[in-house]
Amino acid sequence: DSGRSTELAFVVEPSDDVAVQEQPLLLCCQVEGIPPIRVTWRKNGVRIPDSENAFVLANGSLYVSRFQRLRADGSSDEGEYDCTAQNQYGLVVSRKAKIQAATMSDFHIHPQNAVVEEGGVARFQCQIHGLPEPVILWQKNRMPVNTDNERYTLLPKGVLQITGLRAEDSGIFHCVATNIANVKFSREARLTVSGSHSTAYKDPMILVGPENLTLTVHQTAVLECIATGNPRPIVSWSRLDGRPIGVEGIQVLGTGNLMISDVTVQHSGIYVCAANKPGTRVRRTAQGRLVVQAPAEFVQPPQSISRPAGTTAIFTCVAQGEPPPRITWLRNGQILQASDHIKLKNNNSTLTIYGISQADEAIYQCIAENSAGSTQASARLTVLWADGLPGPPQGVKARTVSATTIQVSWREPLQNTKEIIGYVLHIRRAADPVEMEYQEAVSKSTFQQLVTDLEPSTSYSFYIKAYTSRGASKASDVTVVSTLGEVPAMPSLFIKVINSTAVQATWEPSVKLGQHEGFKLFYRKVHVSQYTGPVLLPSNVTTYNITQLDTSVVYEVKLLAYNQHGDGNSTVRFVSLREPVERTVLNPPCDCMKDEQSNKTSTTGIIIGIHIGVTCIIFCVLFLMFGYRGRLLMCKNVQEQLAPAPAPRGQRSGLTGAARRDERPFGSKRLDLNELERLFPAAPSRDKAPAPGLPASHGDTQLSPLPREDFGVIEEEPPEPPAPGPGPAREG
């Protein structure tokens, strides 16, 4: 049987239907799978027992002999029906079929009398509710309206439009509504066509625009739009989002009604009807929203799987529809609830079963449903179990060693122990989900394991599996034990001086305070052995002000956290109140106005100083430039004034020869600064009197302009000492 490819599944499922009062009702259900298969029916979730009125046929269908909308005892055959099929591997449930009684109400909109001029547009409407939807036909003068006349347009919702009215269109109109429950007639309305066709101009006007519609895929949408005007307006359609309407399945009824056959979800949107005056941009618009719903359908139904015991099984179920469907999982026909080892993720599209066992073998169903309909798909989970596997480990015990360590011990299984190659210890915090579990491998000769690095005051669950080369044993019993608690960690403490007699203590609490936690605050003068305190503070308090202190001494402040396991280590801080007082005396408050004025004065002085410095630099540069130029211009006169006495012939000829060889036009050579220094040696010291016959300084020399050709450079030998005598000496 397990080799057969046929799973328990539905071939035909019941569908929504409308039943007629006192008439028989047949709901179909056909199943395939490995026999024997037992089929039962439920209404509104309650099993239907076989009776004279309702019983299950041999093919699995349900037959109701006389459908009753309401019985004398208050019961009704209306409701949601589903069939269930079960064999040795599990149970499946069909989709829900909604059964309603056929009805028809009275007309709530009747056609109204109308008087319209010739060439105009007439519109009649009637509305009635019923199940199934009534078919509405129109009669004129008690005869069916001629639908072959292109000027007559019948819309599905009970609307009759007549365009280009003529005198022969006058008459009495009424509508006839028909369904399997009844036939009803509306009141009559008279149409009167008056006068002749008017030629006066009339702006385009939309008499009736499109209504909002909500349909299901594959239905037909009719968006009404009827306009008048002179000249006759042109009616056009567009989508508000700018997307093209398309041409497939699109038809225009009458003079401007839009019909979309076999609608899809892509047809949803806002449609705009525009009445345009020919040859102009004058237009009137009206709009309506079309919503197309799609029943749920599977993109990826779940698949049957086989997994070894102790492993993880995953089913995936992806469905689409409009609006998006809601997914529910069933296990053998019962709603599946999440638990420690059963998890639903991704909006229930993924079912994960951890650590599967034979108890998890079942048929799992994915039910996808929305307002447009529902669908289901099933898959079977087979848990593989090898013969000769060891039994579950026995006598699992856990003992708390410390706040972070637990010792787990066990005994070997009762049977099939020869092939055991080792054990696996499964560890999980009791509050965590199954997927947070982790494992530790243990050798086959070891029957205890020390589990470390645990959290204090925390409950942990443990179970053991024995492993062979062919698979794992069943899990042992689960044991739960808690680690010991520990005292809280040291809090961080900060001291802030508020004034000369008060300080503020601020701290950050530890995350390991445990239950019934709090803080203890102590303080004292450093030269006193006795503490003031403890001041008991709850865990949500993180500041405390200590007042009425002595300014002249140093204080010690101590803070510790405590819980049900005792006091933690304390944090100590020292604080002196004297320093802030002295600092206040040494640093009196500033005179802000005075400082501001001083700052302004300093800034002004800096700016003025900068200007003076720049001016001095400019004057110095100009002085140097013009000073050098003046020296160059007066060198000829200086040469004459400093000319030496007649020297021996040999000396004179040597000097003049050198001078002639170096003569150049004024503009042909730039003078070297070294030459200028030789021409104009430094002035003699003030303690030495100038030689007789020389002027006291160059500034007293009278200069006269020299021709350019008379200007030259003369190399001179050092001057000889002046000869003694009354006459003025000549300098070389």
TrEMBL record:
Region annotation (Disordered) maps to: 643-732
**Domain of life per record:** Eukaryota
Its main subcellular localisation, reduced to a broad class, is membrane
Return one Gene Ontology term, BP aspect.
cell-cell adhesion
**Cellular component, GO annotation:** membrane
Q: Which residues cross the membrane?
A: 606-626
Which cellular compartments is it found in? Membrane
Identify the residues that the record assigns to the Fibronectin type-III domain, covering every copy.
392-486, 487-580
| Pro residues: bias regions | 720-732
By its UniProt entry, which SMART domains does this protein fall under? FN3 (SM00060), IG (SM00409), IGc2 (SM00408)
Q: Provide the membrane topology annotation.
A: Single-pass membrane protein
Q: Cite the Ig-like domain residue spans from the record.
A: 1-100, 105-192, 204-287, 295-382
Asked whether the keyword Transcription is assigned, the reply is: no
The cross-references to Pfam families, in alphabetical order and at most eight, read: fn3, I-set, Ig_3
Read off the CDD domains from this record.
FN3 (cd00063)
> Which UniProt keywords are listed?
Disulfide bond, Glycoprotein, Immunoglobulin domain, Membrane, Repeat, Signal, Transmembrane, Transmembrane helix
Q: Which family does it belong to?
A: Belongs to the immunoglobulin superfamily. DCC family.
Q: What is this protein called?
A: Immunoglobulin superfamily DCC subclass member 3
Organism of this sequence: Nothoprocta pentlandii
Q: What is the lineage of its organism?
A: Eukaryota, Metazoa, Chordata, Craniata, Vertebrata
Q: What gene is this protein translated from?
A: Igdcc3
